[in-house]
Amino acid sequence: KESWAFNREEVMLPCRPGNALYAINPSTLVQYPLNEVAEQQVKAGKTTAQPISVIQIDDPQHPGQKMSLAPFIERAQKLC
Questions:
Q1: Which residues are 33's β-sheet partners?
Q2: Residues 72/78, Cβ–Cβ less than 8 Å
Q3: Does 40 score more than 70 pLDDT?
Q4: Sign of the CA dihedral 31, 35, 38, 40?
Q5: For the purposes of burial, counting CB atoms within 10 Å of the CB of 23, is it exposed (0-12), middle (13-18) or buried (19 or more)?
Q6: One matching Pfam family, short form (predicted)?
Q7: Is residue 59 packed enough to be buried (19+ CB in 10 Å), middle (13-18) or exposed (0-12)?
Q8: Cα(4)–Cα(69) distance, integer angstroms
Q9: Does position 52 have pLDDT exceeding 60, yes or no?
Q10: DSSP the chain
Q11: For residue 58, what are the β-bridge partners?
Q12: Has residue 68 got a pLDDT over 90?
């Protein structure tokens, strides 16, 4: 729980074609890009998404920084 990075109780972590990684809020189905590939898909208009910063929380141990997304990116990559 101390490494949880989001202001939602749960997120889905799909891996899309091309290794595009997203976090999805299961209650709203809004998706948030987790890596550069996903961000490029959003910029290219291939999919719609909100910035990950919308649901990413501040790191209480490091003021001014957000919680690390690395553990979630790692888990999502295992689904590719």
A1: 22
A2: no
A3: yes
A4: positive
A5: buried
A6: DUF2511
A7: middle
A8: 9
A9: yes
A10: -TT--BSSS--B--EETTTEEEEE-TTT--EEE-SHHHHHHHHTTSS----GGGTBPB-TTSTT-BPP-HHHHHHHHTT-
A11: 66
A12: yes
Domain span at 36: 15-77
pLDDT tens-digit profile of 1-39?
Answer: 579 999 999 999 999 999 999 999 999 999 999 999 999
Distance of CA 69 to the CA centre of its chain: 7
| Structural domains of the chain, count | 1
In this structure, is residue 7 part of a structural domain?
no
Q: Which two three-digit tokens encode residue 52?
A: 């990950």
In a domain, 37, yes or no: yes
In a domain, 30, yes or no: yes
d(CA 48, CA 53): 15
60 within a domain of the structure (yes/no): yes
